[in-house]
Write a structure and sequence with these properties.
It is a single chain. By secondary structure, the protein is of the alpha+beta class. The protein has a single domain, classed as Creatine Kinase, Chain A, domain 2 (2-Layer Sandwich), CATH 3.30.590.20. Helices cover 42% and strands 15% of the residues. It is built from 14 helices and 16 strands. The strands form five sheets. Strands 1, 2, 3, 4, 5, 8, 13 and 14 form an eight-stranded antiparallel sheet that branches. A two-stranded antiparallel sheet has the order 6-7. A two-stranded antiparallel ribbon has the order 9-10. The chain is globular.
């Protein structure tokens, strides 16, 4: 959820002042883009990995402050809860060897964090939702000690006029709950992938990423359980949307306007449409006065950080001050392994490139409503989901990948300049995963089925113990035995 803020109390004047600066910076961004300030032609990638800290019994361990102090690594930062951390990777140019470099860099940081955790009698795990998380773990007492998180919680509840957050997820089983704060969001950990793109092509890449969300989601689910219930293959999707349930200026009256969503529609001409939408539709949550120069759009960037589209546009600057835009793909869960996650990256980069650079614009062949419906079907049903594709045909996701998805991803990665051996290594992981039908979610559910099917405490504990052992081995999830 971004960087720390210096204050935790704000007046109405603070909100009005911030909104005025936000409006000015949105106008400035529009002018600067027209003037060619965002002329960086490079494709650059990066990532953020959210992970859990657990104790010897596998339960959440709220010790991130002590771990971060021992690490003293700028690439590892706190998350919403005291039992989560976030690992970041330095940006890397999209070229031959980039996937290998991502895997090696992520492995190095992960091993350093894991060694530090072990020295504290704790451990790290990558999983979308920790299956044994308890409601008692998700309280404000376990919120990380940052003003930003306290203010976000207060503002979310204020805009809801104090109404509790209502969680209702209908999957294999049904879950319904009312929560007094946003801490349930801490139960959702993800692997967020960044792709910097040339501004002139950014609209096409944004729409391509939306279209690609459904097949990517179907092949990567790793969050099937919450509070002893078997829900969606990627329960993290509805859980995150409902745990920060906020609308726009009209509150929750307009069901199409939500701060966490698949979006309002395709971009028609420019990513600027999304930043204008941010200004026009969404009230400010964090009206902190910012000292950063206006030409770096600090208020626009902070406001954008409190709107969580599943594909989110970002404005950034490299070490020379060159401005750029990048797309944050937020749909992937954490885990099951580092290799699985880099393989997911490969599919995302390749599919996005192939679709964005296609001679026939794909968003003219697939209505936005269909892309959105595909996404939620994939999150709910995984590889069993039926997806409407550009040719007007419906494909089970398990058939889509070998017939359409993998050839497109391979084409896109070749167009990015990657060599055959690198492409085959990472796409082969997804090919084998789909062929076996064993995503992280499918493995978790199959493990429970072997024990009778119900997600009771003993079965979940046994499953999590085996999950951790397999994750430590480094073998991709399709190779795990049940």
């Amino acid at each position: 959820m971004g960087q720390e803020i210096a204050r935790s109390h704000f007046s109405e004047a603070d909100f009005q002042r911030f909104h005025g600066q936000l409006r000015d910076e949105t106008d400035a961004l529009t002018r600067d883009c027209a003037a060619g300030r965002f002329s960086d032609p490079r494709f650059v990638v990066g990532f953020e990995l959210e992970a859990w800290l657990i104790d010897h019994a596998g339960f959440p361990n709220p010790v991130n402050t002590a771990l971060l102090e021992r690490l003293h690594d700028p690439l590892v930062v706190p998350e919403l809860s005291r039992f989560n951390i976030e690992l970041n990777g330095p940006p890397a140019s999209m070229r031959s060897g980039v996937l290998n470099a991502l895997e090696q860099g992520l492995t190095g940081t992960w091993n350093k964090c894991q060694a530090t955790a072990h020295g504290m009698d704790a451990a790290l795990v990558m999983i979308g939702i920790l299956p044994n998380i308890r409601a008692d773990d998700l309280t404000l007492a376990n919120m990380s000690a940052m003003k930003r998180y306290r203010v976000l919680n207060e503002q979310v509840l204020k805009q809801r006029q104090g109404a509790a957050l209502h969680i209702h997820i209908q999957g294999e089983e049904s879950l319904e709950s009312h929560l007094p704060d946003v801490m349930l969001e801490a139960a959702t950990t993800s692997f967020q992938v960044h792709l910097q793109v040339p501004f002139a092509r950014a609209a096409r890449y944004y729409n391509a990423a939306l279209i690609a969300c459904a097949p990517l989601m179907a092949a990567s689910g790793n969050s099937p359980l919450l509070f002893g219930k078997r829900l969606w293959r990627e329960t993290r999707i509805p859980l995150f949307e409902q745990s920060v349930e906020l609308g726009g200026y009209g509150g929750l009256a307009d069901p199409g306007v939500r701060r966490v969503s698949f979006g309002q529609g395709y971009v028609l001409g420019s990513l600027l449409e999304l930043f204008r939408e941010n200004l026009d539709l969404f009230p400010v949550l964090l009206p902190m006065p910012l000292d950063e120069p206006a030409e770096r759009y600090p208020h626009l960037r902070q406001h954008n950080g409190s709107i969580w589209r599943w594909v989110r546009p970002l404005v950034g600057f490299d070490e020379t001050g060159q401005a750029h835009v990048r797309l944050e793909q937020r749909i992937f869960p954490s885990g099951p392994t580092l290799l699985d996650m880099v393989a997911n990256c490969a599919c995302h980069f390749g599919l996005s490139r192939a679709l964005a650079e296609a001679s026939e614009v794909p968003e003219t062949r697939l209505p936005f409503a269909a892309a959105r419906a595909n996404f939620y079907a994939a999150a709910r049903d995984g590889l069993a989901a039926k997806l409407l594709w550009l040719d007007g045909e419906h494909y089970p996701a398990r058939d889509f990948w070998p017939r359409i998805g993998l050839p497109l991803a391979e084409q896109g990665l070749r167009d990015f300049g990657l060599e055959s051996v690198e492409i085959e290594r990472y796409l082969g992981i997804v090919e084998a995963r789909v062929r076996r039908g064993q995503t992280g979610a499918a493995w978790q559910l199959a493990h429970l089925d072997k024990q009778g099917g119900k997600a009771h405490e003993a079965a979940v504990a046994a499953m999590l113990a085996d999950y951790l052992e397999n994750q430590r081995s480094g073998a991709p999830v399709h190779e795990w035995s049940v």
